[in-house]
Amino acid sequence: MRPPAPWAILDVDLARPLEALRAPPEASGILVVFRFRGAVLGFGSLLPCELPLSTGELARFSARTVAPIAADWLRIGNGYDTPATGVRSQRTADVDPLLTGSVLGRLDRVFAERRTRPAHHTASIVICTRGRPDALESCLTSVAPEIARGREVLVVDNGPDPQTEAVVRRIEGARYIPEPRPGLSVARNTGIAAATGELVLFVDDDVRPEPGWADALVQAFDHEAVAVACGLVLPDALEEEAQIAFQYDLGFGGMGLVPLCFDWSFLQGWRRGVPVWEVGAGANMAVRRSTVLRLGGFDERIGPGAAGGCGDDSEFWHRALFNGATIHYEPLSIVRHQHRRQWDDLARQAYGYGFGHVVALFAQSARDGDPGDLARTFLTMPSWYAGRLRRAPRRWLLGEPDRLLWSEIRGYLSGVSRFRLFVDAFRRKR
């Protein structure tokens, strides 16, 4: 049973001498994030009653948690040969269970080599925002080091207002671009049109990039076939039930911790839709500007402000892959996301996810000719929701109600009502 809110997030830096781990006051659950040289090597969950951990106990807990990811990093080195269909290390025996100094030294060399790869491309940073000046100001503060380095930062205001403009004007080097037409895809296309860099790095206004975030994404484009790169998104806080539910119930906590390469081989063998949503998150994404323009930009029928709360990013990933491009997932690019704190906000987000996902599936099937997207819409998803409905009474009795189920189903049904999107597009294509 999942502990109630609030949860504390504790970072354990394996590059420093370990200290006893103690329970923070008032925390009901604890998420431990194991890091080394800025990389995230694993997550651990603890209850306050399991603490404190002595330095020896923490060392053993750390080793058990990070050994599989450390083994994968040592195998991959500076490459991207990890299969995009899953990340299950078969080489944990290569890593000493106590994470000795020699193992950490090898990891240190891997990360140092990866971070010093040449970055041959210029990059513009685009932040799309709407009516959240406080969140935007925090985001701009986080990207200020990139401005100091001379990188272009564009803020596309998708609901132009004086407060948002004032925030941008206060940040020297940031450029304000008003875009009154609603829709995140519209805002992204506006940012792409205005950007001067070969690459466009997108971050949402409610994320906080960590140091090195931008360089890690830029370095992922060392091969001409790479059209998209995505990075790791961590929760900024898990203090409310809604934030915990977003992280774990809406699937936001499933991103991998090792580099992945998605290419044509990833498209093979999926009978009920290619799971492009596994690529990453649009909240931390870079695209090759020339490729986006060649493929027609982001689909302005899809995404927040158009047809719901998601799908604009994954639809573009689907289109890029079906046009022969490659996508990289780079976990050394890390941002922290401010999850919704209120249930009403989260319920609206869950509705939007269901709605936008179905509309994106329709658009993908019409544009890329993948029948699996329709099979997912009309077979896989109804079966999945039916299973959740069957389990709902038992979960309620156990005190773990599926609180987002009805919002997701309503979103799904609203998305299905847009089936004409597929029919009309298919007719035009013929």
Helix content: 40-55%
Q: Main sheet, how many strands, which sense, barrel?
A: 9 strands, mixed
Distance between the termini: 52 Å
Question: Order of helices and strands, N to C?
Answer: EEEHHEHEHEHEEHEHEEHHEHHHH
Apparent shape = globular
Question: Tell me, what is the CATH class of the largest domain?
Answer: Alpha Beta
CATH fold topology of the largest domain: Spore Coat Polysaccharide Biosynthesis Protein SpsA, Chain A
Helix/strand-derived category reads alpha/beta
Assess the beta-strand content as a share of residues: 15-25%
What does this structure look like?
With 430 residues, the protein is an alpha/beta fold. The protein has 3 domains: 109 residues, no CATH class; 220 residues, Spore Coat Polysaccharide Biosynthesis Protein SpsA, Chain A (Alpha-Beta Complex), CATH 3.90.550.10; 84 residues. 42% of the residues lie in helices and 19% in strands. Strands 4, 5, 6, 7, 8, 9, 10, 11 and 12 form a 9-stranded mixed sheet that branches. Strands 1-2-3 form a 3-stranded mixed sheet.
Brief descriptors of the model:
430 residues, alpha/beta, Spore Coat Polysaccharide Biosynthesis Protein SpsA, Chain A, 3 domains, nine-stranded mixed β-sheet, 13 helices, 42% helix, 19% strand
Gist?
The protein is an alpha/beta fold. 42% of the residues lie in helices and 19% in strands.
What's the topology here?
Layout: E1 7-13, E2 29-36, E3 39-46, H1 55-76, H2 101-115, E4 123-129, H3 133-148, E5 152-157, H4 162-170, E6 174-178, H5 184-194, E7 199-204, E8 207-209, H6 213-219, E9 226-235, H7 241-248, E10 260-262, E11 284-288, H8 289-294, H9 312-322, E12 326-337, H10 343-368, H11 372-397, H12 405-416, H13 420-429
Parallel strand pairs: 1-2, 4-5, 4-7, 5-6, 9-12
Antiparallel strand pairs: 2-3, 7-11, 8-12, 9-11, 10-12
Helix pairs in contact: 3-4, 9-10, 10-11, 10-12, 10-13
